[in-house]
Amino acid sequence: SVEGHDLLYSVSIIEKVRLDRQILLQGLPDRRIHIEATTIDLLARWAAKRYTRPAFPDEFNERCRPAAKRVSTRLKAKGHLITGLFLQLDSYEELPSEQDYRVILRGTALPETCDDPEQERVVLSFLADIEKALNDCVGIAVAEAALDSERDLSLYELRFVRRWDYDFLSYREDTPEQLAPDD
Length: 183
Prior knowledge:
By secondary structure, the protein is an alpha+beta fold. The protein has helices at 21-26, 37-52, 58-64, 68-78, 111-115, 117-135, 155-158, and strands at residues 84-89, 101-109, 140-149, 162-163. Helix 4 (68-78) packs antiparallel against helix 6.
């Protein structure tokens, strides 16, 4: 905000400018402008995603493309109950079209979500929809889909899965602290 009035900002990850640090040291921040710490953190995480996002084979991503709209729609409707979607592929190589990617899908949710039977039912239904959307893609075969409470998914298990990034959706009312950490 500027002097108490909210303003919209536009940020482009591809537009970068190099500044000599002396320029930054010579100037003083404009005290009329205030950006909340959570917004700064969110922008920093968003910018870092360009460099830290787990990579999947291009062929896998292309095969998943038909499921994107369905997954996006489900995430917009029920994504607030999910803290992470993780995939484990049988191969991270570019596979020929006649060979399927075998996938293990893991969804995570907060412990209180998994402890509430109604919310857990909604999340399990959500994961079943994601599993079906992926299985409907030619060349993708989901071998297993499971929901894990964040308290039960171990660091050891995280070594074998990669976060399936869906940051193209806004955080809505969620704050970054409510989302599972990337590492």
